[in-house]
Amino acid sequence: MIADKFVDLYARNSGLRDKLVAERDVVLTYALHALEVAGVMKHLAFKGGTCLRKTVFGSAGRFSEDLDFTLNSDDAEDDVLIALVDVFNREHHGITFQFDEYYKTEGDTSFGGEVGYRHAWNGAGRFRLQVSLRERPTLAVSPRPLKPQAYFGYLEFQPFEVRSLDVIEMAAEKVRAGFQRAKVRDLYDLHRFATTPFDIELLRRLAVLKLWQVQDPFDADSFFERIRSSRYDWDDLRRLMRASERLDANEILETVERRFAPLRNLSELERALIADARSGRNEALAEQMRTAIRGALR
For residues 149 and 59, is the Cβ–Cβ distance under 8 A? Predict the structure, then answer.
């Protein structure tokens, strides 16, 4: 693990209020490297807030404190999960991980838990780890390089690529998250996506499909009502951002509403899949949607 002084410098240059947010960001890089060198990443697709910071937005994105993946393997899922647990019950470049209390949800929809870690100058760190088992990625998973950070020059290994969801699929998962729950981190990530170019038609198809896969019919009006009416913990978001970064709740909400407004423009196929979502039985219709989504990228 890199020296305390270098993480302290990284935290100060990042404008963080809490140095441990920076420390955890560094530790998560080590954790990803441990999965890579153990050969476990070839069975996973990295996603979520940490993936967005490390592979998409870089320093322009918020910090994150956990690791999220989707299982993407032909191997038996229990074999992959056992290998993952083994990675996080050993030492890696001076960080000792411990992952002895974990869960697998009823219905085998996800696997995860709290990973403990300790190193020379922090003896009681933790981060959350979750692997989604309920679906496989719709789009091709590919390696993405880590966005450069100031501490990379002090790592014991060279920067590496991480097998990740396609960016537009990560955006669709954020739409699904915004539809199903009220977390300020998801709203902020949607705002960050709103300032970048992307195919909104493709995003809408993916969001409809992803909600169908969890038997939840997408409704754009409900999506916008939820993000507008939810009570967000803005202080939780502030600690993951530069102290100097202006946080304007109305501006964030208005930007998301404006950029994602075409989510209302549903096609006949999308409406049909939404109508089937409660039962989730029409796999042929879902496969038609997957074909349309993949065809849009050719």
Answer: yes
256, burial (CB in 10 Å: exposed 0-12, middle 13-18, buried 19+): buried
Q: What is the pLDDT of residues 248-293, one digit of tens each?
A: 999 999 999 999 999 999 999 999 999 999 999 999 999 999 999 9
Q: How far apart are CA 98 and CA 95, in angstroms?
A: 10
Q: Are strands 122-132 and 66-71 parallel, antiparallel or unpaired?
A: parallel
Superfamily of domain 4-164: JHP933, nucleotidyltransferase-like core domain (3.10.450.620)
Spell out the residues 6+ positions from residue 41 whose beta carbon is closer than 8 angstroms to its own.
32, 35, 162, 163
Any alpha helices (H) in 200-267, and if so which ranges? Answer: 200-213, 220-229, 234-238, 249-259
According to DSSP, residue 264 is labeled G
Strands 142-145 and 161-164 come out as antiparallel
- What beta strand segments (E) does 109-204 contain? 110-119, 122-132, 142-145, 161-164
Q: Over the Cα atoms of the chain, what is R_g? A: 19
Q: Which of 143, 167, 38 is CA-nearest to residue 91?
A: 38
